[in-house]
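Annotators were shown the component list below and the corresponding predicted structure, then asked to write short factual statements about the assembly.
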Amino acid sequence: MSTLLEMSGVSVSFDGFKAINNLSFQIGEPELRAIIGPNGAGKTTFMDIITGKTKPDEGRITWGEKNISLLGKSESQIAREGIGRKFQKPTVFEAQTVRENLAMALRNPRGPFDVLFYKKTQEGADRIEAIAEQIGLSDALPRLAGELSHGQKQWLEIGMLLAQEPRLLLVDEPAAGMTPAEREKTTEMLVNAAKTRAVVVVEHDMEFIRRLGCRVTVLCEGAVLAEGSIDHVTSDPQVIDVYLGR
Ligand SMILES: Nc1ncnc2c1ncn2[C@@H]1O[C@H](COP(=O)(O)OP(=O)(O)OP(=O)(O)O)[C@@H](O)[C@H]1O
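Structure shown to annotators:
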């Protein structure tokens, strides 16, 4: 596993308040990583920094085998580098079918106007089938996305992100609002997605985190408080104090 993204000494202040405080973080490729921490710990700001939405005041962020700097790149340039982000609320095209949603999301080397053409090619159709299977929506391909359950919409959006073949996928609270069965399927999906890429999951649900079976980073006051296996971090007295023991 080689390092894909490395942050070092990153700080961001909002009106004098240090939301991220000298934060260092590394993720490999492939790797699955969970991020936990109390409200206001800086989890969202951390993802905003990686995607270029928030510019750090200090620090370095390097990416890929050439260690290029992500600082100074725009949000769309960072997305093109292969960093995808799934927000908490699903944003799928409700009036389109599952198949059309996936077709739109497929990376298309011929430019945006050939999406319909691409959809009709065998390669495009095969890719759509493969992604639908990965996200458990093979039978739902002809259905309108607006008719899907909340959990299925989340999976469709994960599928749309996977269609773009990100090297790093950031996922914000995927388990929120899901049934226990949906949570279990989501765990499986993320574990599988992380076999070939880096996946960072921010989540409050500790059972969900435990099932991911991955390294956990605990953020607190904008810095890493603890890092390691779920058993390691959940037995750390400081983590119990600021997060688990609430
Ligand atoms: N644009 C902003 N302007 C001012 N303060 C901000 C801004 N964005 C975040 N903050 C502050 O920075 C701190 C970290 O916020 P952030 O949303 O990153 O935390 P979080 O760990 O994602 O919290 P939660 O679990 O509640 O989503 C908070 O105190 C928040 O109020």
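Statements collected:
1. The longest strand covers residues 2-14.
2. Strands lie at 2-14, 17-29, 31-36, 58-63, 68-69, 83-86, 168-172, 198-202, 215-220, 223-228.
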